[in-house]
Design goal:
The complex is a heterodimer.
Chain A (H helix, E strand, L loop, with lengths): L2 E12 L2 E12 L3 E5 L6 H8 L7 E6 L2 E3 L4 H6 L2 E4 L11 H5 L14 H14 L15 H14 L4 E5 L7 H16 L3 E5 L3 H7 L2 E6 L2 E7 L5 H9 L19 E10 L3 E9 L3 E6 L5 H8 L7 E6 L2 E2 L5 H7 L1 E4 L3 H5 L6 H5 L8 E2 L2 E2 L1 H14 L16 H14 L4 E5 L7 H16 L3 E6 L2 H7 L2 E6 L2 E7 L5 H8 L14
Parallel strand pairs in A: 3-8, 3-9, 6-7, 7-8, 13-20, 13-21, 16-19, 19-20
Antiparallel strand pairs in A: 1-2, 1-4, 4-5, 9-10, 11-12, 11-14, 14-15, 17-18, 21-22
Helix pairs in contact in A: 4-5, 8-17, 13-14
Chain B lengths: L1 H10 L1 H15 L6 H26 L7 H18 L5 H22 L5 H19 L5 E2 L4 H8 L1 E2 L2 E2 H19 L1 H11 L1 H6 L4 H27 L1 E2 L8 H11 L11 H21 L3 H25 L1 H6 L9
Antiparallel strand pairs in B: 1-4, 2-3
Helix pairs in contact in B: 2-13, 3-8, 3-9, 3-11, 3-12, 3-13, 4-5, 4-6, 4-11, 5-6, 5-11, 7-11, 8-9, 9-11, 12-13, 12-14, 13-14
Classes of the chains: A alpha/beta, B mainly alpha.
Chain lengths: 507, 328
């Protein structure tokens, strides 16, 4: 098998932070290569460099043995490299045929645009991809899967030799994934190489010939799929450095009283029959990738979105909550993933944000007792060590960590004892992270329970009594603290069911 | 209260107002006479009452284009009821109920149907104006109103014209509700960030409907005062462009059309500024057509002054909390 592209020693830094430290990557003609790595491993950066969207700081790229350098995406395309981004580059108000030939419109011998020829060719290519809509349909009438086919057709009209697909199955239904796999196999048989960026085990093991694993911006492994086991794969992704043996400080509480239990929570298209049980004083971690349904799950528990099916029993009360207010009154509180967009009212003051969910407690015969409200806000801000100049400061002026503390203070002030925390430590500094960890522990010591969503597995291992893995809206694995196994949790996140047989290396 | 004053300063309102007063009295000495100042207040009061309601809707993130039509519709209905029955109770109650119905329709279109406030209230603006014309066959209704009703426009209390008293009362009540009631806080939260407000346990739909009801009621009240002043219900002529004047007052007063930022003083001072300027133009004999142009210039100036204040940073510094109150 000859080598199509050969990248050596690729380095890239963003604002002084190294994203890639000397990564090597070979892509052979016609192979399907899985590019695998945890979040932040450098996959996207490497892909953008190959696509000509960003220049590397150092390193060389050779195509068919000859050195090249890409100043812009067009240069990479001229060398036969096309990219299908996760955010599809479709112009919604143009018809399919124009989208297919966007940027490479065909002209006839009079120098005019040759629509008949383009329509015929677009139709021919699209029909081989299993595309059933008309080439004259406007792109905004297409499904996501159909738009993706248009993107792939675009790469085919350009005589691509390498197609980079960034998490191409992220928003596809099962049959659509099957169709995509068929297309990938066909392209590969025609000698077109594919780089498949994915987190899903089944995709890596079903469709790919070889896997290149990145970790922390460096090469962490390179193996033929036929010679690789799932366990080896996640070991390479995670490295050996992460240990699960940090003791959770003080779990004095006996966790036998069930405060929340859900059966078969379903909401199309993101959740399919989730069961979960939360005990008093427990920290239940939810591990999962973007799109696994984590946020959707806690929003349903909180009454922010309706569920299609399933049952919920929380604090002795049966049924879903009809609104966030109802959930708050029952003692459930949500710290949303999008802190600035959904957790806080940025123009309002720190104090007003803290008391927003518990304002009713400060109503007297003449209306709000503003002094009473302010002193309560001051107490909560002090308890959570929110660093601020004045409670009258707009909350938008605080740092991320302090903003998150304000969100948590709001929940505490509302008397919440089941905390739903969606990525509470994202984008905040280490000091504030530790403060939030301490807070979670001290809350559970007083009998509160926590559902914690995090993309950071080491954080979950440190904090949680139980970790539940979510993959495409289903629970794949559940682990108790005494049996935490990082590799198994990572496999669960990538879609491996608890008792499914391991994929064996074919020796 | 001092904080409120400081903030009013920071918004630039007081500065603009004082500058106008000084300027106007320099231009024409008659301006500062008590009777002329009463004229100013009387003229500003009607738009002012409407602007206070508009201010509340805008704070909650909406807008209400139907207020001018509600003014006309309510005035016409009041006049017709008096002509038909002369029941002093009904002819105040029924117009206000009609105003509430329009407000409810606005609120439901925005919340249940999810229409943009601009579109929803545009519909009601047209429908209410049309309904008034259909109801009266397009003719003004002259009614021999009783003195109690004429008192609404012509009476005085402690030397202040009644419309001005109502304007002040409405302002104070609105200030109280915005600052001292939970719904007031909910209005700010909803206007600034509806999603976060909902997740914080605020029933944002209820809040929005309440603001449209309040705004429509105040517009209805202004309609009653107007019809009392004119001695007739004018379905076609009354309240034309008042929605725009009210929005102008709110903008001049510094309430953000984005919602969630501003205070009732915005609508209050904004209406006064418009009142002062039109009075001044009347004293100077400027034609009404030019007054329209000038109004645009005032809005531009008000926005410009506030922008300049933001650039220089002086005005923010005035409103900034002292930074030595660092908590432990």
């Amino acid at each position: 098998m000859s080598t199509f592209i050969e990248a050596r020693g690729i380095e890239k830094a963003f604002m002084g932070v190294k994203a890639l430290h000397g990564v090597d990557l070979d892509v052979h003609v016609g192979e399907v290569l899985a590019l695998v790595g945890a979040n932040g491993a450098g996959k996207s950066t490497l892909m953008k460099i190959l696509a000509g969207a960003q220049p590397p700081d150092a390193g060389t790229i050779a195509i068919d043995g000859g050195s090249v350098s890409f100043g812009r995406p067009q240069d990479a395309q001229d060398c036969g490299i096309s990219t299908v981004y996760q955010e599809l580059m479709i112009v919604p108000d143009l018809p399919v045929v124009e989208n297919v030939f966007l940027g490479a419109l065909k002209k006839n011998r009079f120098g005019l645009l040759d629509w008949p020829a383009m329509r015929v060719e677009a139709g021919r290519i699209l029909s081989t991809l299993g595309f059933s809509a008309s080439v004259d349909a406007l792109a905004n009438t297409l499904s996501i899967a159909e738009m993706q086919l248009v993107e792939i057709a675009k790469t085919l009209t350009r005589q691509s030799r390498l197609v980079i697909m960034d998490e191409p199955t992220a928003s596809l239904a099962k049959e659509e994934v099957e169709n995509l796999f068929k297309i990938v196999r066909r392209l590969s048989a025609e000698g077109i190489a594919i780089i498949f960026i994915t987190h899903h085990l089944n995709e890596i093991f079903e469709i790919c010939d070889r896997a290149v694993i990145l970790r922390d911006g460096a090469n962490a492994g390179n193996a033929r799929i036929a010679e690789l086991t799932e366990n080896e794969l996640v070991s390479m992704m995670l490295g050996r450095s992460v240990t699960a043996n940090v003791d959770r400080s003080g779990t004095a509480l006996r966790q036998d009283e069930i405060v929340l239990s859900a059966r078969g929570i379903t909401r199309a298209p993101s959740l399919h029959g989730i069961d979960l049980t939360l005990r008093r004083g427990e920290v239940l971690g939810i591990a999962g990738l973007m799109g696994a349904g984590r946020t959707e799950l806690v929003r349903i528990l909180f009454g922010a979105d309706p569920a299609d099916r399933g049952t919920l029993e929380a604090k002795g009360r049966v049924g879903y909550f009809g609104s966030p207010r109802a959930a708050l009154d029952a003692g459930l509180g949500l710290a949303p993933e999008d802190r600035k967009g959904e957790g806080l009212i940025l123009p309002l003051s720190i104090g007003q944000n803290i008391t927003l969910s518990s304002l009713k407690k400060h109503v007297g015969p003449l209306g709000l007792k503003l002094g009473d409200e302010a002193s309560k806000a001051r107490d909560l801000a002090a308890q959570l060590q929110v660093k601020h100049a004045s409670l009258d400061q707009a909350v938008g002026e605080l740092s991320g960590g302090n903003q998150q503390k304000v969100v948590l203070a709001k929940l505490i002030g509302a008397g919440v004892d089941i905390y739903l925390l969606d990525e509470p430590t994202r984008g905040i500094d280490i000091g504030a992270k530790e403060a939030i960890f301490d807070l979670i522990w001290s809350l559970t010591e007083t009998g509160a329970s926590v559902i914690l969503i995090s993309s950071d597995l080491s954080e979950l291992l440190r904090l949680c009594d139980t970790i539940m893995c979510l993959h495409l809206g289903r629970v794949t694995q559940t682990h108790r603290r005494s049996h935490f196994d990082l590799n198994a949790i990572m496999l669960g996140v990538m879609g491996k069911e608890e008792h499914a047989p391991a994929r064996k290396a074919v020796v | 209260m001092t904080a409120t004053l400081k903030r009013a300063f920071a918004d630039g309102n007081i500065i603009i107002l004082v500058a106008l007063l000084v300027g106007a009295s320099l231009i024409t000495p008659y301006f500062l006479t008590p009777e002329n100042l009463l004229n100013v207040v009387r003229a500003a009061a009607l738009i002012g009452i409407v602007a206070i309601g508009m201010n509340v809707v805008i704070l909650a993130g909406g807008i209400d284009l139907s207020v001018g039509s509600v003014v006309a519709l309510c005035g016409a209905i009041a006049a017709s009821i008096w002509v038909a029955d002369a029941n002093p109770f009904l002819f105040i109650l029924v117009p206000l109920l009609v105003a509430l119905a329009v407000g409810l329709a606005n609120g439901l279109l925005v919340t249940l149907i999810g229409m943009q406030p601009f579109v929803a209230t545009l519909i009601l603006m047209t429908v209410a104006r049309g309904a008034g014309l259909v109801y009266t066959s397009g003719q003004p209704i002259y009614a021999p109103y009783p003195p109690e009703f004429l008192f609404l426009s012509r009476g005085t209390l402690f030397g202040l014209p009644i419309p001005a008293v109502i304007f002040l009362a409405v302002t104070v009540v609105t200030w109280y509700v915005l600052k001292w009631r939970t719904i007031g806080r909910a209005i700010y939260a909803t206007g600034a960030n509806e999603k976060a407000a909902r997740l914080s346990g605020i029933d944002v739909n209820r809040v929005k409907i309440a603001t449209y009801l309040y705004c429509a009621t105040l517009a209805g009240l202004a309609g009653l005062i107007l019809t009392s002043r004119m001695g007739s219900g004018e379905p076609g002529q009354a309240g034309v462009f008042w929605e725009l004047d009210a929005i102008a007052a709110v903008v001049i007063g510094g309430t953000s059309l984005q919602g969630g930022k501003g205070s009732v003083w915005g609508g209050f001072v904004g209406a006064l500024i418009i009142g002062i300027v039109s009075n001044l133009f009347n004293l100077l004999g400027v034609e009404p057509e030019w007054q329209q142009v000038a109004k645009g210039a005032i809005i531009l100036a008000a926005v410009g002054i506030r922008w300049a204040g933001g650039q220089v940073g002086i005005m923010q510094t005035l409103s900034r909390p002292r930074s030595n109150e660092v908590s432990r």
